[in-house]
Fold:
Amino acid sequence: MNTLSLRTRARLAALLLFALIALPAIAAAQAFTIPQDVAFRIRLDDTLTSTDSQVGDPFSATVVSQGPYERARVYGHISAIDMSGRISGRTEMVLQFDRAIMPDGRTARIHAEIIQLYHAPSGETVGVENAILSGGKGRSSLVGTGIGAGAGALFGALFGGGKGAGIGSIVGGAAGLGTTAFRGSAKITLPSGLEMMIQII
Structure:
């Protein structure tokens, strides 16, 4: 009994010693942060598109820059997709970065902005407020054409009769096309393997 009791005590002492050693490591992992203004290059693990992806969809990426954060995993989600194109004619997608996990398991909450896209296949660029913009504008809208053609036909009829109405319709239609500001949206494609530079903010 005395021998068994000593073994039990030794095991308890070993467990206590292990706990005392492990606690600081656990606390350090919970307190891990990445300083502001740190920038690193990441490679997307997922394919994101403005037509197939949805707001809230998660994504992950791997840090490929050499340095202390190399091989860390970055996780985030799509926070916005705007396909209206009413102002610039370009589709917009906003990515939000949520956390980074180091190879040793340490986790940090992050807020980051995209500085640069590398070799975007469709010419996507980075706009204001961390928005990714489609590389091209969509097709011009015909919204203004009907009004222009109708007005042209009316003035043509008043000043030139039937023949004038036909000519006025053509001229008015051209004017309508020239003044329309709305353009259809273009697609954003961020394929798996695409690299981008992000900066912690």
